[in-house]
Amino acid sequence: MSPIPEKLQETIDNLAIFPDRSARIELLMATADSFNPVPEEVARRPFEEERRVKGCESEAFVFPVPRPDGRLDFYFAVENPQGISAMAMARILQESCSGAPLEEVIAVPQDVVYKIFGEELSMGKNMGLTNMVFMVQNEARKRRRRLEAQGAQEG
């Protein structure tokens, strides 16, 4: 199994230093404060429904942009200004998965949301954040399949 993106592992390791829930929440809120919405040159409102994260109460959207090297950059929109957790997750995914090898993005474990936010998440919040991760992984899988198909045609 491939390792996960190095920057994501660093984030998980850094958050593990804060076993105190309130300190972790403060750190995640600071992460959310540094969230930058998708630039207009990548996507404009109204966003395409196929980009919407299913089950996300914060109305999050994921936008993959291919790089020449075959990897992806990820951009996010979080339409609910109260969506602090979604903004934090978007920032973490953007920083850690953009430019990472596709296999590493695909290998992100299902429990990564709990590793980042802790076990106290509500079922609804967990579902939305986990679906953000799944969407990023699915985009990496699609990109890998496209690249494999191109390689088969050229070979």
List the helices and strands and how they pair.
Layout: H1 6-16, H2 21-33, E1 60-66, E2 72-78, H3 84-97, H4 102-106, H5 112-117, H6 123-154
Antiparallel strand pairs: 1-2
Task: Give a verbal description of the structure.
The protein is mainly alpha-helical. The chain is 52% helix and 9% strand. It has helices at 6-16, 21-33, 84-97, 102-106, 112-117, 123-154; strands spanning 60-66, 72-78. It has a two-stranded antiparallel sheet with strand order 1-2. Helix 1 (6-16) crosses helix 3 (84-97), helix 2 (21-33) packs across helix 3 and helix 3 (84-97) runs parallel beside helix 6 (123-154).
Please identify the oligomeric state. Answer: single chain
Average pLDDT level = 94
Largest sheet: 2 strands, antiparallel
Count all strands and give the number.
2
Low-confidence stretches: none
Q: Strand pairing plus helix content: what structural class? A: mainly alpha
> Secondary-structure element order, as H and E?
HHEEHHHH
Apparent shape: globular
Number of helices: 6
Distance between the termini: 27 Å
